[in-house]
Design goal:
eight-stranded parallel barrel; single chain; globular; four-stranded antiparallel β-sheet; binds flavin mononucleotide; alpha/beta; TIM Barrel
């Protein structure tokens, strides 16, 4: 049993936000009941259409994406997605994002009333919505500023008694000061990392490949960075850390657990092998029993 805030997970393996839709997309490809928890695609108050195409591009040992938080908004989520999710029988963690602390607060308040929601992950770190920002100064991400992180977590904390997780960005100089700010505002846990800002260029057209020009880098290429940040955060804060970034095998997941993560999330690997999580769950169990 793995404890994150009020949540008791049967194993430490969750799916990462934005890489598993709202779970129905993976029905029939994987036994959903086996997952430790499901983190949904980030939702916002109002529907969003996202960024211009193309939105994804393959890179060496990873991918870039610039989806831009496309989603149908919270009303659609509660009426169309949550009934299915809440019947799966695993903890459901809903990822939320907003343009202001008040929007985060409003989303948290509404989800707090929903029985099928077990936890809330605050996406403070989406790199693909610059300019829309919550910006701290000059369009930065919330999770790039410790005061903005503190303020948003504190507002959301006041709106919900459900397990609250702050998802942090690797695009910072000092991950520890941001993790500390989230804990000071009473987040139950921090998850890290979201994607690293990157870009790719088509040498024939001499133009960026992504419609948004820049995008978030994910996959095996970011694992060493994620692992280092999890290790740094875990030894400095007194809340459970959830490790995310490049995890594709049980061995990857175990590295994160050894570095200090209490649980892990699997993202890009779901696209390559929808059965990745099942294999990771099995491999982690065998390793822990052996060791
Ligand atoms: C296509 C795509 C969409 C994503 N959408 C979201 C999202 O909506 N919210 C969020 O918090 N993270 C989102 N992420 C980031 C992942 O949850 C994860 O933090 C990141 O990809 C690193 O993990 P990975 O290397 O295992 O993919 C997205 C990642 C990808 C590849």
């Amino acid at each position: 049993m793995v404890k994150i805030g009020k949540l008791n997970l049967k194993n430490p393996v969750m799916v990462a936000s934005g890489t598993f839709g709202y779970a129905k997309e993976f029905e029939g490809l994987i036994d959903l009941k086996k997952l430790g928890a499901i983190v949904t695609k980030t939702i916002t108050l109002k529907p969003r259409t996202g960024n211009p195409m193309p939105r994804t591009c393959e890179t060496a040992s990873g991918m870039l994406n610039a989806i831009g938080l496309q989603n149908e908004g919270i009303d659609d989520f509660i009426h169309e997605k949550l009934p299915y999710l809440s019947k799966i029988g695993v903890p459901i963690i809903v990822s939320i994002s907003g343009d202001s602390a008040d929007e985060f607060c409003e989303l948290a308040k509404r989800l707090d009333r929903e029985k099928g929601v077990d936890g809330i992950e605050l996406n403070l770190s989406c790199p693909n919505i610059k300019g829309r920002g919550f910006s701290v100064k000059g369009g930065r991400l919330i999770a790039q500023d410790k005061d903005a992180t503190y303020n948003v977590v504190k507002k959301a904390r006041g709106a919900t008694s459900k397990t609250l997780i702050a998802k942090l960005s690797p695009n910072v100089t000092d991950i520890v000061e941001i993790a500390e700010a989230a804990c000071k505002a009473h987040a139950d846990s921090v998850s890290l990392i979201n994607t690293l800002i990157g870009m790719a260029i088509d040498i024939e057209t001499r133009k960026p490949i992504l419609g948004n020009i820049t995008g978030g880098l994910s996959g095996p290429c970011i694992k060493p960075i994620a692992l280092r940040m999890v290790w740094e955060a875990a030894k400095n804060i007194d809340r459970p850390v959830i490790g995310v970034g490049g995890i594709a095998t049980a061995e990857d997941a175990i590295e994160f657990l050894i570095a200090g993560a209490r649980a892990i999330q699997v993202g890009t690997a779901n696209f390559i092998d929808p059965g990745a999580c099942e294999k990771i769950i099995k491999g982690v169990k065998i390793w822990t029993e052996k060791k």
